[in-house]
C-alpha cells in the first residue's frame, strides 16, 4: 500500500521516530526503548513509515535496522520550493512594472 | 535590465520565519512606491493569471489595505493588511489576515516586516514574515492552485523536531 508522505508526519510518535533514525539506523527494539509505548505500537508506526517510503529496512544478521530515506524527506523541501516560485513570479512582474515606471519618469 | 539581481528565499524551520531578499534595478523611491501604493501593488502582487484588486487602501499607521486575489474563474480571495509601523523609504510593517468579502478577518494571520535600502541605483528589499503557520502557507498555495491537499499543520512540528536535533 502506498501512502502520502504527509500522512507519515501527521503523528507525533512517527515524527519522533523520524528524528531518532535520522541520526543512525536503529532496530525496532532500540526505537521502542525511547517511547512509553508497546513494541507493537512502534512496529505499526514503522510499517506506516515504510509504506510512505520514508524509512528503509536493512537486515544485519538477525536484526532489522531502520534508517531514514533522505531523498523522500526532500519532498517536503519541494513543497516549500513552491513558495519560492510564487515569489519569483511576483518579482518578475514587479521588475516589469518598475521598468515601465522608470520610463514614465524620464 | 541587470541580470545579477540577488534573490534569496529562506524558511527558518525553528522560528517559522520566512525571509525573502530581492534586489531591483530601480531607485529606492520607485521601489518604495511599488510596495506601498495600492494601484502599483495591484499590478504585480498576484502571480499571473491571477489579478489583484484593492478595494480601498490607506497607507498610514493603523490604516489598512483591503484587497482580493481574483482567479481566472472569477473566484475572489479577500485579505486585509493593517499597517502597524511606517518609516518612510526605510521600513514598514503590517499584519496580514485572510478575510471574507465583508471584511471580517480570520483570527490568525502573519506579521510582515519590509526593509528597503539602495546602493548604486540598486534597491534591496528584505521581507521577513513571522509566525505564519505552515498550515496557513498551504492555504496560500491552494489559493493559487499550485498543489497539495494534505493538511500540513503537522509539518511545522516535524520541522521543529528535526531542527532541534
Overall outline of chain A: rod-shaped
Quaternary structure state of the chains depicted:
heterodimer
Mean pLDDT of chain A: 85
CATH level 4 superfamily of chain B: START domain
Low-confidence stretches of chain A: none
Major sheet size, sense and barrel closure of chain B? 8 strands, antiparallel
Question: Helicity of chain B, in percent?
Answer: 10-25%
Ranges of chain B where pLDDT stays below 50 over 5 or more residues in a row are: 145-162
Can you name the CATH architecture of the largest domain in chain A?
A: Orthogonal Bundle
The count of DSSP E runs of length 2 or more, i.e. the number of strands of chain B, is 8
Using the CA coordinates, give the radius of gyration of chain A.
22 Å
CATH class of the largest domain in chain A: Mainly Alpha
Number of domains of chain A: 2
Structural class given helices, strands, pairing of chain B? alpha+beta
CATH architect. name of chain B: 2-Layer Sandwich
Number of strands of chain A: 2
SSE topology string of chain A: HHHHEEH
Name the features:
heterodimer; A: 106 residues; mainly alpha; Arc Repressor Mutant, subunit A; two-stranded antiparallel sheet; rod-shaped; B: 165 residues; alpha+beta; Alpha-D-Glucose-1,6-Bisphosphate, Chain A, domain 4
Characterize this entry briefly.
With 106 residues, chain A is mainly alpha-helical.
